[in-house]
Amino acid sequence: MITSIQAKKLVVISDLHLGNPFSKTGASAIRLIREMAAQGYDICINGDGLEIAQASFSQLVHELPDTIRALKDVKKMGRNAYYIVGNHDIALEHFLEDWGVLKVCPFLNVETASQRIRIEHGHLYDPFFVKFPRIYEALTAFGGVLLKVSPKIYKLWIQFESFRSRFIKNPYGIEGELPQMTEAALELSRRGFDVVIFGHTHHRGEVTLPNQKKYFNSGSWMLSAHYIQIDDGTVSVRAYHDN
Description:
This protein is of the alpha/beta class and 243 residues long. It has one domain: Metallo-dependent phosphatases (Purple Acid Phosphatase, chain A, domain 2). 33% of the residues lie in helices and 22% in strands. It contains 6 helices and 12 strands. Strands 1-6-7-8-10-9 form a 6-stranded mixed sheet, with helices on one face. It has a 6-stranded mixed sheet with strand order 5-4-3-2-11-12. Strand 6 and strand 7 form a beta hairpin. Helix 1 packs parallel to helix 2 (57-76). The mean pLDDT is 89.
């Protein structure tokens, strides 16, 4: 099982949800993967890249072959592709190994320059997911039905989370997130990581923790095309402008 790597240049994207009836990100994400690999970057898909919990199988079958071809191209360029398991693709926990074009991992500890970076999807720090997993699963399935009725429901929920966060004490957090995410990032930083990267919440952002370490969330491509770029120890959130 792969959990630790060394990488000078790495791109992290998360929450593509390929196969979700609301997701229209497949072609753009594939272009980003190819472009960054051509520039010498390894690729990390930080969870929920594939949609299993809310899958439209016709859409998944349509998008998956192009994704696999892109990952083959990454390997041909001499770069590595890592896939960290999330909650919408949690079945992939049964496949934690090197599959040739893709290395499936529970998390990644990355050493780059003088930085130690922890990359996780982040669902294990979601209090609702941890305390009520069966209810969470049922609501996720129900949410998939609602998305087929109207994709606008998803954006309304994200807006609600951003509004709710204004009334929750979380001075070091990313807007829209619950404080448990920041607390988890802070705890991981205390264990020796200079940077912590999560996905899961679909709320993109960057904050400085109380101990001056950094916490990033790459957001979701279901909302906007952003990624996290790691370049010789420098970490930044970037927007992808698909031409």
